[in-house]
# Entry
Amino acid sequence: MVKPCLQVELAGVELENPLMNASGILGLTSYSLARLAEAGLGALVTKSIGLKPRLGNPNPTVVEVPGGLVNSMGLPNPGLEAFKSELEESLPKIGKPLFVSVFGFSPEEYGEAVKRLDRLPVAGFELNVSCPHMGGVGEIGGSPEALREAVRGARASTGKPLLVKLSPNLTSFAEAARVAEEAGADGIVATNTVRSMVIDLEAERPLLAGVYGGLSGLPLKPVALRCVYEAYEAVKIPIVGCGGIFTWRDAAEYFMAGAVAIQVGTAIAYRGLEVFRDILSGLSAYLEAKGLDDLGGLVGAAHKR
Amino acid sequence: MVKIEKARVETPQVRTLFFMDEACSRAEPGQFVMVWIPSVDEVPMSLSYIGSLEPDGLSAITVRRVGEASEALHRLEAGSLLGVRGPFGRGFKPVEGRVMLVGGGLGIAPMKPLLPKLKRLNCEATVVMGAATASELALAGEVERLLSGWGRLLKATDDGSLGFKGTAAQLAAEILEENSGYSQLYACGPEPMLVKILELSFKYGIQAQLSLERYIKCGVGICGSCTVGPYRICVDGPVFTSQTLKDLPEFGRTRRDASGRSIPV
# Structure
């Protein structure tokens, strides 16, 4: 029997498999991007980059909770100009499609960021309109008008695939997905992290320097899965699932909910970079056991019952 | 949070803070913890004492005053609370034979807990400690105590106020020139010193384990802030072998600041 094919097409980009890293995981230098590429991913996503450099929050920026993490990194990044050189150096070494994640503090900044990066041979862009602990950024995704403007501005700046990464903290995920689709998005990433916090009992105060942070990992999965399911019924553009994917079973559930590709982040802190190959071999074995040639038969399967 | 059991002054600039912690007491020499001073910062520090190797079961960090976080740590006393997360990273592996440990600045701190393990393996140990001046050779007394009867400590000071006049790397080079029959070099200290030790390890064909430092944020291997080339200090290091460091991009040349921008080491 021919081995099942894990290739997928995401918004016009051919991926050798449906796995991507979540933005913020290791995608900061040309060397770590190259290392991610070697770990078996189908596509890479960079750290979220803004127009200006940011140091981010002081530590503590990451705290472990059962099965997950809460992070309040504060969008540290070297700024667009410095990162361009990093990208120019890394793109030849990577050999996989690369999506650049961008953020802004106003809708206009998204269009500006995309415009400045568009000439690079990147596969596309992921708009971070959903960072839950940065005032301004998360609010863009939370306001239909601001979201529409940000996506339209980015759309006008590039012909390349545009993914929009939405927050699970919204009143209506489906509505935000529709707004993004109407404004010209080519795909939805569901989801970013849940706005949350941790209190240290002995210190009697919030643990994170930024006070609020984004919850990721196992606790996020039922929430993000719900968002994927809702978005699948609301829009026609493809959905990328992201939230608490640790095993091939988690991945399969996301496909059934309607995702065509998935992103893995927090699992790396728990399972190491080997987690990508583990998920791929598990998916392959699962498809073979079900007599399926590829992932197509899984996508949206949970909606049919 | 842990309670500080005792605080010991090593030099006017350096203090050791002792505490009881289950996970730290089982650490490997060379591992580090993320130390939280509420309202100030959370910073990586190597463990200079590992509880399971100590009669009183206490672990410790040894801190030099260099900035806001270390100043805050110097203000703590016995009874104060301290946040400790970890231990993290890959530590030093003890080996048999004739070994040399080279510590620059406070570099001896993470290597010190390795000494009892090397003693148990019947090693011959030479420890080289370097500092700017005699009064800054923190932990020298402790090292001498641990080496008593089986190893030797040689001191180097930039200003010649004690021991060899010059750097720890220069003294190490002189020792190796005379006799290069060492099975392992261990080193920890400023990166230019590590570069020289790495050169010596290749010159004389001696295996080496070097502990590197970088700006650390998450400590658990996902944010990518602490990378040297493709390796993360917090999970792939901080200890690296000479083979790994050979031709490693960024090592000895550049590091990243808090924004991820590349700056000279």
Observations:
- Chain A has ten helices and 16 strands.
- Residues 132 and 291 of chain A are 41 Å apart (CA to CA).
